[in-house]
Amino acid sequence: MQEAKLTQLPNNRTTIPFQLNALWKRHGELIAALSGGFLTLSAYILNTCSVPYTWLLYPAAYMAGGYFKAREGLSETLQTRRLNVELLMVMAAIGAACINHWLEGSILIFIFALSGALETYSTSKSTHALSALMDLQPEIAHLIEDDHETNVSVKQLVPGDIIHIKPGEHIPTDAVIIQGETSVNEAAMTGESVPVYKKAASEVMAGTVNLDGSVTARVTRRSRDSRFSRILDLVQSAQKEKAPTQLFIERFERTYVKGVLIVTALMLFAPHFLFEWSWSETIYRAMVLLVVASPCALVASTTPAVLSAVACGARCGILIKGGVHLEELSAIKAIAFDKTGTITGGNPEVTHFINHSSLDQKTILDQIAAIENQSSHPLGRAIVAYAAKVTGHAQLPLANHIKVKPGFGVIGYVTSHEYMIGKGEMMDADALNNFHQIYSLEASKNDETMVYIASEGKIIGLFMLKDQVRSSAKATIQTLRKNGIKTIMMTGDHERTAAIVQRETGVDTYIADCLPEHKAMKIRQLNKQYGHVAMVGDGINDTPALAQASVGIAMGAGNDAALETADVVLMKNDLTKIADAVRLSKKMSRIVKTNIAFAMAMIAFLIATNVLQLLTMSLGVVGHEGSTILVILNGLRMLRD
């Protein structure tokens, strides 16, 4: 067994520096801002008491409060060779000091640094719900080789490796159990709060928690290819993607900053000659202009709101790959849904069972389930699941001489009795007619599949199965309709099936007999008709349409290709989250527009009052930086959605 590496516990001498270092990394920007504010307040109080040399506290306040923002502005300017808001504020503070307005300059530095610290907190807080996913993936796995267990890095695991998963541990990568049984908490991946029973041949997912059993499993995917890793990739891309409004403001900022500097340079001379202002008043007004015309609030109007909205979505089980997709959602006029696996569960379920045998229901179900348990057909699995539900997971009797007739059904023996289970075409015509004369069947009206049971030349039972509509589908479609969004169902099934699902869900319209390439073409047509269209799907056949749509939305349990192609992933397979995502995007859009309008109005007001010589630098600082803090706090409201 590989030797474990032990981490030495810190002693008392190293604990305090370690804690201080961690505190500075987490709260350093806020500490610096508050220190600058404290020095400014101390200088003001001591100055009113006529204490000598108190002016020395103002440069100290400049350096303490302005350190982070000056470093950030200088670093960004050197990298991009462009001026930015941070340098504009530093220049304004230095300008205030040059005309002996140390107090106003210190207040500017303090409030600007405080707003920057708040923005940093908003970013870290809004991404906390996303980055917390990283804690779900363990770094070490227990690899079994030659009957020996070794601790290895999860990154070293390859498909085919055998690993040991102990009770209470996070599952390191996607695998299939080969020995043992347990309960697994899959809430982090599926949103299902009830633990799922797992036994041999059951699949387990990375990031989920093994609760109470010790199991051995075979790795099916590398750690980087697991579904959990793909979710982390979505999280990281969501943090990097920027909304169109945000990109526009960043481009506008570069031009605007240059304009402010040019106008400020003119302001240093022009008013003296045009309006006969004194030189001291001219320079003072130029410095005030430099402060109030800075686009701090405008720049901060989008980022906190977008990041908060993405984090809020992740907390609710909606993974959004970036602000651009979230902003696009707010403009959606129509949503197209795939049917199978999206509007419906994707797996048939028994809706009705008729027992026409001499055996009681439990006995006949156990015997039929024993035969179907050896079949891999979806209908067979549905019958086994139904039998387990009715009989309480009783032990199945022995079935033998199993013979599968592809496309029709299965034949097998239980307790020396032969059973034939399958389509009507597999049954004796006279026996089938006699059975139908006894029971009035209307399955065709509900598009249900009939699976008959025959024994000794007679029909002794019938299963009626159907791919059930998701319980959340109808509520989702009703909510979308209230929001003025049209719903369209696209399916490869025939017209009758589509019409039945439309009747059950209330979807506005449907497109039947729709092949994958037809879905993409229909999405293009819908885009022309409505302007902005979303597509919801789960399978590889939906990927062309997901890529073609303005916003592609994938079910979390869907195919890998669909998850990669989509812009939004519903982790809990809950269609009601679509309406939540639309509502979230519209709220974010309203907040961003409100922030931009408020920031522009405040800048215009402050510039106008400065030109009219009604604004002091102190009030200009409070008004300008106060508006920045307000738009940041307004954006953070998205976290409480």
From TrEMBL:
Sections of the chain in a coiled coil: none
UniProt-annotated location(s): Cell membrane; Membrane
InterPro entries, alphabetized: ATPase_P-typ_cyto_dom_N (IPR023299), ATPase_P-typ_P_site (IPR018303), ATPase_P-typ_TM_dom_sf (IPR023298), ATPase_P-typ_transduc_dom_A_sf (IPR008250), ATPase_P-type_domA (IPR059000), Cation_Transport_ATPase (IPR051949), HAD-like_sf (IPR036412), HAD_sf (IPR023214)
Membrane topology annotation: Multi-pass membrane protein
Alphabetic keyword roster: ATP-binding, Cell membrane, Ion transport, Magnesium, Membrane, Metal-binding, Nucleotide-binding, Phosphoprotein, Translocase, Transmembrane, Transmembrane helix, Transport
The keyword Glycoprotein is assigned to this record: no
Domain P-type ATPase A: 136-236
Spans traversing the lipid bilayer: 30-47, 256-275, 287-311, 596-615
Matches recorded under PROSITE patterns: ATPASE_E1_E2 (PS00154)
Domain of life assignment: Bacteria
Pfam families listed in its UniProt record: E1-E2_ATPase, Hydrolase
Family: Belongs to the cation transport ATPase (P-type) (TC 3.A.3) family. Type IB subfamily.
Protein name: Heavy metal translocating P-type ATPase
